[in-house]
Backbone:
């Protein structure tokens, strides 16, 4: 039975996993942690909580019919806008990184 060949295959597979998958996972996990910490820091520094509450109050002042409110609620406009704005902000921050951008 060719046991050394099987052992060499398993070793090569584990080496490939360690080089390609595990290292990329660690790098991306570190990068996402840095971005999350930077995001939280920027929210605290720029005092975005008060500005978002002002935006919510301004949005509530717009007169809308019940049908329009129902449509906007069905397609989740509020969540969609926050996701799009967050994606643009994250893209801006990632492009400023010297290694990736």
Residues:
């Amino acid at each position: 039975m060719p046991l050394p060949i099987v052992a060499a295959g398993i070793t090569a597979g584990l080496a490939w996993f360690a080089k390609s998958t595990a290292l990329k996972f660690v790098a991306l996990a570190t990068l996402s942690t840095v971005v999350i910490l930077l995001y939280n820091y920027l929210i605290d520094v720029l005092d975005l909580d008060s500005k978002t509450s002002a935006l919510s109050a301004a949005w509530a002042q717009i007169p809308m019919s019940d049908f329009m409110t129902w449509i906007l609620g069905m397609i989740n406009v509020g969540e969609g806008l926050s996701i799009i704005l967050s994606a643009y902000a994250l893209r801006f921050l990632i492009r400023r990184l010297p290694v990736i951008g």
